[in-house]
Write a structure and sequence with these properties.
The complex is a heterotrimer.
Chain A lengths: L6 E3 L4 H10 L4 E4 L5 H6 L7 E4 L9 E4 L2 E5 L4 H6 L1 H6 L1 H8 L4 H6 L2 H7 L7 H6 L3 E6 L2 E6 H4 E3 L2 E2 L6 E8 L5 E7 L9 E10 L2 E10 L6 E2 L1 H7 L6 H8 L16 H20 L2
Parallel strand pairs in A: 1-3, 2-3
Antiparallel strand pairs in A: 4-5, 5-10, 6-7, 6-10, 8-9, 11-12, 12-13, 13-14
Chain B lengths: L1 E6 L2 E6 L6 H8 L18 E4 L2 E4 L12 E3 L12 H8 L9 H14 L5 H7 L11 H13 L19 H9 L1
Parallel strand pairs in B: 1-5
Antiparallel strand pairs in B: 1-2, 3-4, 3-5
Chain C lengths: L21 H6 L14 E7 L5 E7 L1 H4 L4 E6 H4 L28 E2 L5 E7 L2 H8 L3 E6 L6 H4 L15 E8 H4 L5 H6 L3 E12 L8 E5 L5 E5 L4 H12 L6 E4 L15 H13 L3 E4 L2 H7 L3 E12 L5 E13 L9 H6 L11 E9 L13 H19 L3 H8 L8 E2 L5 E2 L4 H12 L1 H14 L3 E11 L7 H6 L8 E7 L5 E5 L8 H13 L6 E4 L17 H28 L6 E4 L2 E4 L5 E3 H10 L12 E6 L8 E11 L5 E11 L6 H20 L31 E4 L17 H18 L13 H9 L4
Parallel strand pairs in C: 1-12, 10-11, 14-15, 20-21, 27-28
Antiparallel strand pairs in C: 1-5, 2-4, 2-6, 3-5, 7-15, 8-13, 9-10, 9-12, 13-14, 16-17, 18-26, 19-20, 19-25, 22-23, 23-24, 26-27
Classes of the chains: A alpha+beta, B alpha+beta, C alpha+beta.
InterPro entries (chain A): CO_DH_flav_C, CO_DH_flav_C_dom_sf, Diverse_Substr_Oxidored, FAD-bd_PCMH, FAD-bd_PCMH-like_sf, FAD-bd_PCMH_sub1, FAD-bd_PCMH_sub2, Mopterin_DH_FAD-bd
Protein name (chain A): Carbon-monoxide dehydrogenase medium subunit
GO molecular function (chain A): FAD binding; oxidoreductase activity
Chain lengths: ~280, ~180, ~800
């Protein structure tokens, strides 16, 4: 099918994009990689009057270091994230989660920032971003502001990005030497996650010195499993200790039912997959 | 809007509506009907083409987004009457039945082999996860891709599709391109 | 004497010839219907009902009609007098209830997705834009979705004018038919009885090429290109449905991207496009989107199967009773009512069952109509009986292969007439099973399974068995007549020798991926002694292939190729007469081999190509011989063919998450003689993927309002390469005795056999945890619930 007609603008700078947003009426949609938006438009589930395409803005591309932080341009493709040496060294969890997103063609077009701003609770990058305490840099008519991941995800498909704003950078603390794993559970390779668990641990000998755990699709927003993290710290990475910690996985979750999983099954999966994700991270 | 693209080695400048999908532009305006549409949710991959050297689903790219780009479709793989090694391998391994998924499957396979010149079975299967086939059960497709890998000389991936007479890239510079 | 099956001197048959079809398809030089464009062509888009059951009070299309580029808006009322009722060719009983089936709804919609109005515009985009401007005033009617409750007293009705939701009930009883005893008596007196209810979920054929139709009304004939499996049936039915003269219609099936039964249909979209193009006098094209396809093209399966099996303690089956409910959806399409009836003959499968009772009630619901999907009735039957054999084995503590062997027809007992009246001509279940066991490593896997159970591993191993047969080669016309089907089961073929010695073969079978062009070329090359590349196979156009019954039911080779063989033999017979005349000898002294006619005992000979040229010149032909070297034949099989096989499947079941992983799959099939082993293997592999998909992944799901929630490829889970393993396939060859080629058909075998093999394997993996059955598809949640929730 064919989308309903819309106007199109492709600014070359962030400032131009912000101006274009300010000038547009409220039926504007931002086009990042388009891998979620274009199917929606084709099915005519949405019919914005205008698309503002961020694809021509060079300053939104790429990954760089800024002191202790890594900075990911919002329009950096999944493909580039997967292969970025900085991310592979300092934020492996993001790379591992990105490996599971959709398929190779979609990863060529889809973008890191686009996935976060789309805020689909079944999206695989939200929980890792939350677990790693990334910060979102949002540009708007009043300049730039930084929002921590914990405040960024508001509800289903809703973030802290205002209607006249755009997500331009994601700042990631370096997790150098941490071990990570993203455990995705879905029914076929292309399908969205039923539940996903993002885990990163900092080992200290046989002990777990620090842990970060986030859950995908266990609420309307990604969930930080702080109870699990706390239970892991200072523990030896034995299967028993990890299983015991994973019992806390449901803290703060509010899962819903769908055709693939009812609430009880989703809750069960969250615990099992948390245990598996942490084990895999700890033994990697 | 006016766009300029190079498709299978030919340059085109055209006016398109912003809502025109790349695949529609290819099929309806350029007559490149070798690339087909199989779904509306970007799951089937039948519409896969290469956009600036990478596989994309041309149903999920607007023609205006491709302005200034170089596009290769299945129709551009055959050079001087000679089929691409992946095409040959699809024929020799009976990797198609009805053939509707084949253009996308071949284009994704070429991309996959550019990423990994000697993939094992699991790598091939995962590399084709965005392309659905209803006829073959995939077994012969996987076989064909691995067979093509053995046939292909260095540089037979998307980079080799550049129509301009650029010198073939060395293995080292290819590796650098991938790292960048 | 004429050439026979044993005179294939050329040796093409049996070779893994690479396909002629491929060159275009791999280069993108294709002729899909949607690729075509004609001068002045308009585009059509269809407005579909969002509601499952509603009265249409009013349609306001005035705004749409005034929009840019819009040529016409057509509603049901506009075509009410012309559109007739979509055909159902299979009235299974004399009192079958069948509702009127308009192509465009007139005053009522009966499923979500039913066509309500169409827009014809200059571009597809403009047509879709205008759809959104059409205002339909619907009045909700009660929705009937569940088959079982649809059959209860006082249920709401899909078609109140019919007075019931039951379309028909069809019964077979071996005691009444005189083919066996009473199943009820067998059950009453049995040492062991097994009772199970299985659900065949609703499936979507999901051919890769969406349906597309182009109608050109500007010629003397109205020409329709359609992505159909059945161009010949379509032409006939268009004439009968719309009243347009048959000889004024030409139907072409160009390249067709898969069907699997899903394009075995005369569709509302075809009738509408036909009527609208003729009304406007302009070419009109319609191409569906995938999501439209899912909510309007027919679905498959959807049965509730209640089985009772009687046996003695040795594992010998003494009786079988089958009671089905089959969901028709909202209307009876081309062969909708007959699909479950095809299964009636297959529940007894490869087994000597002495007493059998079958009944099926066809039920209307407010859903997309069901109809043929790969296997059509036979996968359902095979699934149920193969599940029951495993359950019997478990009940008796026997090995499932041993139980099967105890009951199957031994290879020296063929031909064997079954309790359901079919006569199986040949088979060797022992050989196929022995080979499968060996390839699978059956005993080693059983040992590993026992070890894992003993250790209490998180991941348990299951072994699933499916020993199946199917009736192929649809079909002997007299059998179809006895089943009240509206047509015969013959097929047509023609062979034309051209003056240069090249050959045109015309087949009434209509391929869409099967490789007819290659296989028919191999057969004809051998038959006539000409080169493989000297044969061109023409099909799928009612102008060149004027007669045919098309492609479905694994019939192409067993019926369609047999017609071509008979036509080729007629050509040879005629050429022999001319050869004798040319070589001045008696016809009886002429031998034919390898394309040459030789005077017996001499070195005097002439080639079939020389004869073709001589016939063209026609200067010196025998008296009474027409100057043509072409012939046609129509083959009506005397019996079905009965491919069979043994499939073994190993799955690993994660008991913590319920996830199933296919570990290994062995399929040993016996499809009789093989024309092209490469194509046969490809058919089996593809069939396996579809059968496995039913077992594990696919399900068409409706919500309580009658909305299809699995309405896109994002929700209806067709497996990708990453979701399937490689299969081990092999063959035994027991030639069919019902056709001269000795072939049996292979299109549906993999699909039929694999679904029970997989589900048996999954159940076997967790049977020791108290599981007796898992509903399809065996999703992780269902498997987990079966283990931990005490379900079933």
């Amino acid at each position: 099918m064919i989308p309903a007609a819309f106007d199109y603008e492709a600014p070359n700078t962030i400032d131009e994009a912000v101006r274009a947003l300010a000038e547009a009426d409220d039926e504007v949609k931002i086009l990042a990689g388009g891998q979620s938006l274009l199917p929606v438009l084709r099915m005519r589930l949405a019919a914005p009057a205008k698309l503002i395409d961020l694809g021509r803005i060079g300053e939104l591309q790429g990954v760089r270091t800024d002191g202790d932080m890594l900075v990911i341009g919002a329009m950096t493709s999944h493909y580039d994230v997967q292969r970025d040496p900085l991310l592979n060294e300092h934020a492996k969890l993001l790379v591992m989660a990105t490996d599971t997103v959709a398929d190779p063609q979609v990863r060529h077009r889809g973008t890191f920032g686009g996935s976060l701003a789309h805020a689909d609770p079944a999206g695989d990058l939200l929980a890792p971003a939350l677990a790693l305490d990334v910060e979102m840099v949002i540009a708007g008519p009043r300049g730039r502001r930084t929002v921590p991941a914990a405040e960024f995800f508001v509800d289903y498909f809703t973030t802290a990005v205002g209607e006249d704003e755009l997500l331009c950078e994601i700042r990631v603390p370096k997790y150098t030497g941490w071990h990570a794993h993203y455990e995705k559970f879905n029914r076929v390779a292309q399908a969205w996650s039923i539940v996903g668990v993002a885990a990163a641990v900092r080992p200290d000998g046989h002990m777990i010195a620090e842990a970060r755990v986030g859950l995908t699709n266990m609420a309307s927003v990604p969930v930080r499993a702080r109870g699990v993290e706390q239970a892991l710290v200072g523990q030896e990475a034995t299967p028993e200790a990890i299983r015991a910690a994973a019992e806390h996985a449901l803290d703060g979750t509010s899962p819903t039912a769908d055709g693939n999983a009812d609430v009880a099954y989703r809750e069960h999966l969250a615990k099992v997959l948390t245990s598996r994700a942490v084990s895999a991270a700890a033994t990697s | 809007m006016r766009i300029t693209v190079t498709v299978d080695g030919t340059r085109y400048t055209d006016d398109v509506e912003p809502r025109t999908l790349l695949v529609q532009y290819l099929r309806e305006q350029l007559g490149k009907v070798g690339t087909v549409v199989g779904c509306d949710t970007s799951n089937c991959g039948a519409c896969t083409v290469h956009l600036d050297g990478h596989s994309v689903k041309s149903c999920s790219v607007l023609a205006v987004q491709a302005d200034g780009s170089e596009i290769t479709t299945v129709e551009g793989l055959t050079r001087d009457g000679r089929m691409h090694p992946v095409q040959e391998a699809f024929h020799d391994n009976h990797a198609l039945q009805c053939g509707f998924c084949t253009p996308g499957m071949i284009m994704q396979s070429v991309d996959l082999l550019a990423e990994d010149a000697d993939p094992d079975e699991q790598t091939v299967r995962e590399g084709l996860e965005g392309n659905l086939c209803r006829c073959t059960g995939y077994q012969n497709i996987v076989r064909a891709v691995q067979d093509a890998a053995h046939r292909m000389r260095p540089g037979a991936g998307p980079e080799a599709e550049r129509v301009a007479d650029e010198p073939a890239m060395s293995e080292q510079s290819r590796a650098e391109v991938r790292q960048s | 004497m004429t050439a026979t099956a044993d005179s294939h001197a050329g040796g093409e048959v049996g070779q893994a010839r690479l396909r002629k079809e491929d060159a275009r398809l791999i280069a993108g030089r294709t002729r899909w219907t949607d690729n075509m464009s004609l001068p002045g062509m308009m585009h059509m888009a269809i407005l579909r009902s969002p509601l499952a059951h509603a009265r249409i009070n009013r349609i306001d299309a005035s705004e749409a009609r005034s929009m840019s580029g819009v040529e016409a808006v057509v509603t049901g009322a506009d075509v009410a007098d012309d559109q007739g009722s979509l055909p159902c060719a299979w009235p299974i009983t004399e009192d079958m209830k069948s509702p009127n089936a308009p192509s465009l709804a007139v005053d009522e919609v009966n499923f979500a997705g039913e066509a309500v109005a169409v827009v014809v515009a200059r571009s597809a985009a403009e047509a879709h834009d205008a759809l959104e401007a059409i205002d339909v005033d619907y009045e909700d009617l009660p929705v009937v979705l569940d088959m079982s409750s649809a059959m209860t007293e006082g249920s709401d009705l899909v078609h109140p004018d019919l007075g019931t939701n039951a379309s028909a009930t069809w019964v077979f009883d071996s005691a009444e038919a005189g083919t066996g005893g009473s199943a009820d008596e067998a059950l009453a007196g049995a040492e062991v009885t097994i009772h199970r209810t299985f659900r065949q979920q609703r499936l979507i054929p999901a051919f890769m090429e969406p349906r597309s139709i182009l109608v050109d009304p500007t010629g003397e004939q109205t020409t329709m290109w359609s992505a159909t499996q059945v161009p010949h049936i379509l032409r006939l039915m268009l004439a009968m449905t719309t009243g347009v003269d048959e000889h004024k219609i030409r139907v072409i099936a160009p390249d067709v991207g898969g069907g699997f039964g899903g394009k075995l249909q005369v569709t509302p979209e075809e009738v509408i496009t036909f009527l609208v193009a003729r009304k406007l006098g302009k070419p009109v094209k319609y191409t569906e989107s995938r999501s439209e396809s899912f909510t309007s093209a027919h679905h498959g399966r959807d049965q509730i199967q209640k089985l009772s099996l009687a046996a003695d303690r040795n594992g010998t089956v003494t009786g079988l009773k089958v009671e089905l409910l089959a969901d028709m959806g909202a209307y009876l399409r081309l062969v909708t009512p007959g699909v479950p009836i095809l299964g009636a003959f297959m529940f007894n499968a490869i087994y000597k069952i002495p007493a059998y009772h079958f009944s099926c009630t066809n039920v209307f619901t407010n859903k997309v109509p069901t109809d043929a999907y790969r296997g059509a009735g036979r996968p359902e039957a095979t699934f149920a009986i193969e599940r029951m054999m495993d359950e019997l084995a478990a009940e008796l503590g026997m090995d499932p292969l041993e139980v099967r062997e105890r009951n199957w027809i031994k290879h020296d007992e063929f031909p064997y007439t079954t309790v359901s009246t079919l006569t199986y001509d040949s088979g060797n279940y022992e050989a196929a099973t022995a080979r499968a066991r060996e390839l699978f490593g059956y005993d080693a896997l059983r040992a590993e399974q026992a070890e894992r159970r003993r250790r209490g591993d998180t991941v348990q191993l299951g072994i699933g068995v499916s020993t199946f047969t199917e009736m192929c080669g649809l079909a002997p016309s007299r059998v179809l007549g006895a089943l009240s089907y509206g047509a015969g089961g013959w097929e047509h073929g023609a062979v034309r020798m051209l003056p240069t010695g090249k050959v045109e073969v015309i087949t009434g079978s209509s391929p869409h991926g099967q490789g007819h062009e290659t296989a028919w070329s191999q057969i004809v090359a051998d038959r006539l002694g000409v080169g493989f590349d000297d044969v061109e196979v023409l099909h799928g156009d009612t102008q060149s292939s004027h007669k045919g019954l098309d492609t479905y039911g694994s019939r192409s080779l067993t019926v369609g190729a047999m017609a071509v063989v008979q036509a080729a033999d007629k050509v040879i017979a005629k050429a022999r007469k001319i050869a004798a005349h040319m070589m001045e000898c008696a016809e009886g002294d002429v031998e034919f081999s390898g394309g040459r006619f030789t005077v017996r005992g001499t070195d005097t000979s002439t080639s079939i190509q020389e004869i073709a040229l001589a016939v063209f010149a026609a200067h010196d032909l025998p008296d009474g011989v027409e100057p043509s070297l072409d012939s046609e034949a129509t083959f009506d099989p005397e019996n079905f063919s009965f491919p069979h096989g043994t499939h073994l499947c190993a799955t690993e079941v994660d008991t913590e998450t319920g996830r199933v992983r296919l570990r290994s799959y062995v399929a040993v099939d016996d499809v009789g003689n093989v024309v092209n082993p490469m194509i046969v293997e490809g058919q089996v592999q593809g069939g396996l993927a579809q059968g496995i998909a039913q077992a594990l992944f696919e399900e068409a799901v409706y919500d309580e309002t009658g909305t299809l929630t699995s309405g896109t490829l994002a929700d209806y889970l067709v497996p990708s390469a990453a979701d399937l393993p490689s299969f081990t396939t092999d063959r035994t060859e027991t030639p069919s005795t019902t056709n001269a080629l000795g072939v049996k058909g292979v299109g549906e075998a993999g699909t039929i056999a694999s679904t029970p093999a997989v589900v048996n394997s999954v159940v076997d993996a967790v049977r020791h945890m108290g599981v007796r059955d898992i509903e399809m598809p065996c999703t992780p949640m269902r498997v987990w619930r079966a283990i931990h929730g005490g379900a079933q």
